Amino acid sequence: MQTKVLPYSRAASYTAYWAFLLAVSRPLIGAYAALLAFVATIVLNVVYQFLFRMLNQTRPPLYGDIFTFILLGRPTTVYLGAQGNEFILNGKLKDVNAEEVYSPLTAPVFGSDVAYDCPNSKLIKQKEFIKIGLSQAALEAHVPLIEKKVRTSLLCHPIFMEHRGQWISHQQWRRLTSLPQEALSGEKKCGFTPINSMLPWAPLPHNKKRDAAHAQMRAIYVDIINKRRNAGDNVPEKLDMIGNLMQCTNKNGEPLPDREIAHIMITLLMAGQHSSSSLSPWIMLRLVSQPAVVEELYQEQVANIERTGPNGTLAPLRLEDIDNLPLRQNVIREILRVNSLIHSLLRKVKNPLPVPGTPYVIPTSHVLLAAPGVTALTPDENKKEDIVDYGYGAMSKGTSSPYLPFGAGRHRCIGEKFAYLNLAVIVATMVRHLRFHNLDEKKGVPDTDYSSLFSGRLKPARIGWECGAVKFF
Ligand code: HEM
């Protein structure tokens, strides 16, 4: 349908032009005119939005399950529900694009030629390499490492030493669950700030820190790669992710460049560490609000794990133990459901997209936003599993499910297994050693702060803790 209204931008510029002429010739009248122009611009904008929408029925409305709003200066169309998730997350590659929306934020952090700084076919290949690196054997080997890291934190981390028996705030918790490479942690340092989606190159102090941190991280990984290559000890039985990537070859049969390996490692560190360290405070806050569940989690281990540790204590965790602890798995699953970690999944529209069953056509100026976390809170009984293979193994197409904490479609998370394992070991180790309580007789959990890419807790979010009955130290 042809729209016959005066374009808002042209009308606004006429008004501004006349205000300017007046301001030059008669200052007082000019000031009033400027004020009038300002008010007129707002009124015109509102009238334009309503008029345009009334006349152009193909544009999504301002409310309902499909609606458009301006996010960081760009018209963003949200489509809620399982159909919306299917429409956006399983959209065709030629129609919807993740790189254009995510790369301003991620490319300076992850580095060149990986993730969203390369064509999707290359990312799919990289996900295939990562999947090989997250083999059963690698996951088995990670369990004692993660447990050791948590125990070392409990024993030696300055936060626990300083605040023994007191409280841990959400920032401290994040530091506790970070890897030693803290250079890029923190939303500011890694540049995951709203302004960076528009001005990632701006010479702002946080961008300088981000770039310096990226260079530092890359140098660390390239150094590890060089040392291994020179020592000639990249043998299969020692294969961790770096070792695995050093053995992978691209489609010409050539090994991956060192720089690319380093950038994939930074991507994994950022995607994996950031998400787990954002979710684990939620797990603790939820558990604190349900102390009986903490006790049940502990008793589940007592009932299922042998007491072959020092002085008859529980044995160190193994991968096979995790399947025998269903309550712990379910706690993590449920917290992922009620605290959708990545609340908005974005795609840029590349071709005008008709929305099936509606008169709407989403234009190419729009960004699409899927919010599977909303669907997870309004469950649908008609679940069905569609299997699909995008090139890195068969998996559930998933969009018909109301539960999609790891996304769906070709951009679905590659780290789900590792994330569960990581969180499961962290929770199991914490409940072995600590008891938690809410401070100041508070009930429930803090509200969610949606202002960042990852849903965090509204501050302050602090919990009390003490050493548990069964101690390892
Ligand atoms: C609780 C933990 C995690 C959650 C909730 C989570 C969630 C997600 C979601 C929702 C996406 C899809 C983004 C989109 O469609 O726009 C995603 C993508 C991704 N995740 Fe995770 N993730 C987690 C942990 C991890 C871990 C541990 C790793 C690495 C080992 C990882 C690596 C990735 C990568 C590389 C992508 C990009 C995939 C692509 O665009 O094709 N994630 N994650």
UniProtKB/TrEMBL annotation:
The residues that the entry says bind heme are C413
* TM ranges: 29-51
The record's section on Gene3D superfamilies has: Cytochrome P450
SUPFAM superfamilies linked to this entry: Cytochrome P450
Q: Which GO terms describe its molecular function?
A: heme binding; iron ion binding; monooxygenase activity; oxidoreductase activity, acting on paired donors, with incorporation or reduction of molecular oxygen
Q: Which family does it belong to?
A: Belongs to the cytochrome P450 family.
Official protein name in the record: Uncharacterized protein
Instruction: Give the organism the record lists.
Output: Penicillium egyptiacum
